[in-house]
Amino acid sequence: MRQQPQPVRRPTEGAGGQGWLIGIGYWETAICGKDATAVARAIKHTVDVVGIDHVALCSDFDGAVTMPFDTTGLVQITDALLAAGFSDEDTGRAMGGNEIRFLLENLPN
Question: Is 104 left (phi over 0), alpha (psi -120 to 50) or beta?
Fold first, then answer.
């Protein structure tokens, strides 16, 4: 989805409620900021548009973009989500729970 024109394309009616995720990258041009608070704002906006069940983290550690922190800084996003008023359950969904659910539902047994 990251290279799709605005507005974000949504699945058509009947496409299934759990079959897609929007990955939130955390480089400056993806989140309009350089810190975990900007990531939390981007996640909140996405949740407001498509719902918590469709939000996932997405990053780019191959060196193509400058990142505000590496994977050791993910706790900063967790803290920012909690500070923004996300529940523990919704924070868990955004921080990896949705990806786990998606993979379990979509990978072959």
Answer: alpha
